[in-house]
Amino acid sequence: MGREVSESCVDSLLTEIVSTYNNRFYANKPELAARRIEAIGYQVGHQLSERYTMERPRFSDHLEAIKFICKDFWSELFKKQIDNLKTNHRGTFVLQDNRFRWLSRISTDPSVENTESQDPSAAAESKASLATMHVYFPCGIIRGALSNLGIPCAVSADISNLPACSFVVRIKA
Amino acid sequence: MIACVAVVGHQNNPLYIQSFTEADDALKLHHIVHCSLDVVDERVNNPKKSGPTLNETFLGLLYPTENYKVYGYLTNTKVKFILVTTDLDVRDADVRNVSVTISFKC
User: Fold this and answer.
1) A147, pLDDT greater than 80
2) Which ipTM did the prediction report?
């Protein structure tokens, strides 16, 4: 569309958003911080979908809109498309990205952990909780984009194997 | 001569109306735009009647009144652009270009 932003700036901004909301604004209330971050993502997704659907013909159904998110929307945001799309044909879609750009820099090495975790399950939990904070923003973006296209939904993310990330979209009937 | 341009949001709420005539007929233009919203909804919800143009953003001539012609353009996010023009021999392509330009500038 004309103006460009350096990608490292975007990465730094997102990391800083998560860290500020968790440590300063809502210091002991991670659920509130998560909702705020998701709301920011909702606004961003809302406006981005308006911008990216300008020229295209209208979508005939939900599947077309989800495919738009998987292909054009994702390419504009992350320079690649969603790798795998699954649906149960009853309103649930799973969008899988095998190398999610914003999570690709998070360490996945299980041996580098803080001293207090004794067993691997606790280590895995603390690592997962750190990463979950970072996916609220992209979940919000997807939810905002779909709401603007007339599809109210709930989006959650599954990060069991980084850097792959699956977004589960449940369309509200 | 375009009499009026209107932008209507996805819940049919008016976002912006600008009239380009010197006369003080803002209310009449409001009425015309309001009536045209029904026509837009009808076009969108009746795939049999609209035929091959179901997924088009530009809806074409919505309806002619005694002095004006009303054209509509619908985006993917259900934002509607309504153009009211007084030209008698306006071409579809021109109006389509105008609508696309308006949507680009937003």
Assistant:
1) yes
2) 0.71
**Contact status, residue A17 vs residue A37, Cβ threshold 8 Å:** yes
Residues A69 and A95: beta-carbon distance below 8 Å? yes
pLDDT higher than threshold 60 for residue A168: yes
Residue B78, chain A, CB below 8 Å: the answer is: yes
Percent of chain A as helix, strand, coil, to the nearest 5: 55, 15, 35
Domains of chain A, start order: 6-106+120-169 (3.30.1380.20)
Tokens of A129: 């909780």
Task: State pTM to two decimals.
Answer: 0.81
Task: State yes or no: pLDDT of A166 exceeds 80.
Answer: yes
| B26/chain A closest Cα distance in angstroms | 29
Name the pairing type of β-strands B14-19 and B80-85: unpaired
Q: Residue A124 burial by CB count (10 A; 0-12/13-18/19+): exposed, middle or buried?
A: middle
Q: Residue B8 and residue B10: Cα distance in Å, rounded?
A: 7
User: For residue B15, what are its two tokens?
Assistant: 């976002």
CA of A144 to nearest chain B CA: how many angstroms apart? 11
CB–CB contact B104 A150 (8 Å): no
Q: A169: closest CA among B19, A157, A89?
A: A157
A6 burial type by CB count under 10 A (0-12 exposed, 13-18 middle, 19+ buried): exposed
Provide the strand spans (E) within chain A: 84-87, 92-97, 153-158, 165-171
Query: What single letter denotes the amino acid at residue B96?
Result: R
**Class of B2-105 in CATH:** alpha beta
A66: which chain B residues are within 8 Å (Cβ-Cβ)?
A: none
